[in-house]
């Protein structure tokens, strides 16, 4: 199945299962390195050709870090507050 965008993907059972799996195995944000991740990010954004449901392309992230990253690929870790 091909997904048009992340919004369409989020409504699927496949995404819900993938998200639960990723967050069950780690809650450390891959972007800032701090615990308490509450979302799952596509390491290579779907907009740039990243695989939507490939576990190698999914990583836990804080919603704030994930939103700041947006559709950009990460070259260096974002600077975020250590005082969550």
From TrEMBL:
Coiled coil: none annotated. CDD domains: HNHc (cd00085). The keyword Transferase does not apply. The keyword Cytoplasm does not apply. Pfam families: HNH. Gene3D superfamilies: 1.10.30.50. InterPro entries: HNH, HNH_nuc. Keywords: Endonuclease, Hydrolase, Nuclease. GO terms for molecular function: endonuclease activity; nucleic acid binding; zinc ion binding. Residues 17-67 form the HNH nuclease domain. This is Restriction endonuclease.
